Amino acid sequence: MTDDILSFEEAMEKYDPVLGFEVHVELNTATKMFDAAPNAFGDEANTNITPVSLGLPGVLPVVNGKAVESAIKLGLALGCDIAPVSHFARKNYFYPDTPKNFQTSQFDEPIAENGSIDIELEDGTVFTIDIERAHMEEDAGKLTHKGGAAGRIQGADFSLVDYNRSGVPLIEIVTRPIVGAGERSPELARAYVAAIREIVKNLGISDARMERGNVRCDANVSLMPKGTTEFGTRSETKNVNSLRSVERAVRYEIQRHAAVLDAGEKVVQETRHWHEDTRSTTSGRPKSDADDYRYFPEPDLVPVVTDAEWIERLRAELPEPPAERRRRLKADWGFSDEEFRDVVNAGAMDVIEETIAAGAPAAVARKWWMGEIARIAKEREVELTDTGATAQTVLELNKLIEAKKINDKIARQVLGFVIDGEGEPAEIVEKRGLAVVSDDGALTTAIDEALAAMPDVADKIRAGKVQAAGAIVGQVMKATRGQADAGRVRELILEKLGVEG
Amino acid sequence: MSAITSEQVAHLAMLAHIEMTEEELASMAAELDVIVDSVKSVSDAVSADIPATSHPIPLQNVFREDVVGETLTAEEALSGAPDAEDGKFKVPAILDED
Amino acid sequence: MNNMLTLTAAEIAEKLTAGELTSVEVTQAFIDRIIATDGEALDADNRAAGKNGVNAYLHLNAEEALAVAKSVDEDRAAGKELPALAGVPIAVKDLIVTKGQPTTAASRMLEGWMSPYDGTVTQKVREARMPMLGKTNLDEFAMGSTTEHSAFGVTRNPWSLDRTPGGSSGGTLAALAAFQAPLALGTDTGGSVRQPAAFTGTVGMKPTYGSISRYGVIAMASSLDQVGPCARTVLDTALLHEVIAGHDPKDSTSLQTPVGSFADAARAGAAEGGLQGLRVGVIKELSGEGFQPGVLARFNESLELLKSAGAEIVEVSLPSVKEAIGAYYLIMSSEVSSNLAKYDGVRFGLRKLPEEGNVTIERVMGASRAAGFGAEAKRRIILGTYALSAGYYDAYYGSAQKVRTLIQRDYAKAFEVADVLVSPTAPTTAYKLGEKTKGDPMAMYMGDIATVPTNLAGVPSISLPGGLADEDGLPVGIQFTAPAHEDERLYRAGAGLEALLTEKWGGPLHQQMPDLETLIRDFNFEGAK
């Protein structure tokens, strides 16, 4: 069954969306949240487990100290208050991927509360998103559904459970309701999740690979008729696991809610599942009183108590926040707003920073990474840094150009050879004999031949039409197969014809 | 007249995932009523200013080093499994569909 | 009865060291005794004869126990250094996981389950080179005060086979009383070693919460559970306590404090003048109304003995204990409802398919849990689910946690004027089989009134035999309680009183015990009628 949807434009004319996000971040600790099993992806099923991660009778949890420090760092990076006393709690519900049939989580005393982050959209508009809390918990195992179509839970005859992921440390970041984003809502959703991903990656606390489920987003959407302030009933779209999907799912849910409200019906409070193939959501489970999680303080764990000394030590370890870093780099490099935004959107900021640090001028680094390298990356459908070009490549190419060993055109060819794995630029120039022809004797012969072939052009130059020299330069470049320094050729032509340049 | 109804117990049994017959629900409701009646005085015995004690001996910040320890083999993990396939625990269908 | 069986663990250890006995001889003697007196489920011939016995054991571990005994004897003969209790056999409550032996928690849910790992106390017992005789019976998942809630048959009280041994560690303490083991491990959540110790004339200790690792002890109520060393004498209990205590990084609630010198404290208490100046607080609320006259008579007799030995008797009050049973049942059942959720037929244990309708995992879980848990387990799971559910949490669980604070304050106040507190362990002597399992569930719960407050407060407490009640000739328990971390005081006071009583009786209490083999013969003859 497909739901009716309204066009996004019409939805925006009639309603104001309210958003909310729960983002789960898997930490990259060596071990799990509550036991010493490895936190590793992709291993043989049911091998990264101890009796604790399998929830065998008699086992007890012990908190991973590094995971707690990661959580505190993330809290600080999100501008949160770190709780002086924080407790773990049990969230009770039955599901076969949850070995104890409760999730060890945090309830009324999370490790971090009351933060906010600024989210910059592509055109530079900034939205401030308030963070309600960030708390520590554990991941569940992985279910594979069998016997149905395409591994879906619907129609499956049975399921298989692998508990390798069970107990992997998670931090759940919960926003306060986000009001006022209007038509920018889908874009903001994407930018928010991208920002969280960037922050946790920058902190080094998560691999932040969305395709592996390291960062997972549950998106809450509700609508208010224009001019009203009371929140509508929300839907919660679960596990939207790519940036593109987040944007699309929020957009879809806005359109779906609008159609429901337009038809005079009520939005059902429920979880929704996002399907990338059909670009739509389907109904999951309605909220019911079965969602009585009976939270209570985890008796097997003791409180986490923080003090200023500990928090300040961790704060001192924090890397520069991504947004601040961007501001600093933009100013340092002297790029225009547009230039810098292009760099960020192309994912070229890190590599350009590295290239500049290696000694290349900012404009040169940008020229190469945003120009020829970006072109090749696009052509080959790979990331910039996966092309095989490095900061060192750019630096060497630039040195060769500055030394007038090669010109720009040849440099682009050399880059191609570097990417094809032929070696370093200088080596390639040498091996392939691509160095600029700087022997004036050889050039003079070529110029003489060109002037003899085009006497009328030579006359024009002599008569003072200096710009006509271009035709002769072109002829000389052709004769030298591009290996001449065009500037030097021009000088020699003018010299020969006795004209001031 | 029992203050706790069979319907209430049915809801609790649903939360606790224990199938119960009508007779079990009824007798459990009656027993629960007696017990709750005897224990409910705890809420009158305390006031808002008394802190709750969740752990009898107060401890704090008990952490583990982030170092991998001994793990179970898949064979050990599955040794008690009622049903297994391909090194994984096998469970019946999750959704109730016709 | 073989003379070896009545030796204390301290005596067995001495004789092993002196070469007067071998561990194989001793271990074999206990195995023979178990087969002769336990009756059910252990020996094929006894079973075939339809013979009923104590039924203290769920699993006999004869082969492994004898192998350990043999290796200890060999090492001793080779002059190797051995731990103090090496070669002294021990029984283990079947709530503690043991690699290589089944662990059932006396539940259908875990019938046939073999743990792939050892609990910390199990490991410590192995390191101490003590042969494990087997796994002892209990109320299912330790929930009950009679051992009648075992899925594998009731345990009978060796003093009187138509009585319960108490519970939940009924099998553990009955095995000691029946001379089927010199030492045993129980667990105590609300009196589960102390009350059966009282009912069987043995010694049960509930240490300070966190002083013995709970890793590998199947959880009933995590904030209340504690492993309890048990024996027939206070000194033996102290010796075993030293073996199993100590910090464990696998248990977040495990204390860092060093292990006390429990055996030294017991020896000091039993020595001349050992009780001199000890301030003993008699708990007003737990020594009068509602207690059986024969229990109070023995209790008052102990007070007189303590006084005569130079102890100072003072009266103390724990006004909040009247709410202790309520708070205990709310907290315990809440934790139970969550701790027992893992038994769902997915990873281990019983799986049962629904008898009709679609086979979904939800329904398989529901059917498995319906079939796997007994009535008392279900009752507590449902009560705990209720106490934690939305709208009731504050009134029930929340209030119970506050009562806990009040009880702790009461104890703190009492310990300002007393070094140890004393009361009878239980209001009555052992219940008749069936007496507490029918009708009002509160009737059984109220029997725990004297023991549950210490679990709520986390403080240590010990029960030792105080003699026999005049009206029924059954054992009465005397309970001492000390402040947290002061377990040594209990060994001092307990061993002191034990020495006075033993002198008064002209020997240990078990000398007044009827001959078990005769009881079993008569009981089976009666039973056949």
From TrEMBL, chain B:
EC number: 6.3.5.-
Keyword Ribonucleoprotein: no
Reaction equations catalysed: L-glutamyl-tRNA(Gln) + L-glutamine + ATP + H2O = L-glutaminyl-tRNA(Gln) + L-glutamate + ADP + phosphate + H(+); L-aspartyl-tRNA(Asn) + L-glutamine + ATP + H2O = L-asparaginyl-tRNA(Asn) + L-glutamate + ADP + phosphate + 2 H(+)
Top-rank taxon, per record: Bacteria
Stored InterPro entries: Asp/Glu-ADT_sf_sub_c, GatC
Disordered: annotated segments: 75-98
Keyword Calcium (UniProt): no
Keywords: ATP-binding, Ligase, Nucleotide-binding, Protein biosynthesis
Family, similarity comment: Belongs to the GatC family.
Record text on subunit structure and interactions: Heterotrimer of A, B and C subunits.
Function of the protein: Allows the formation of correctly charged Asn-tRNA(Asn) or Gln-tRNA(Gln) through the transamidation of misacylated Asp-tRNA(Asn) or Glu-tRNA(Gln) in organisms which lack either or both of asparaginyl-tRNA or glutaminyl-tRNA synthetases. The reaction takes place in the presence of glutamine and ATP through an activated phospho-Asp-tRNA(Asn) or phospho-Glu-tRNA(Gln).
Designated name of the protein: Aspartyl/glutamyl-tRNA(Asn/Gln) amidotransferase subunit C
Source organism (scientific name): Rothia endophytica
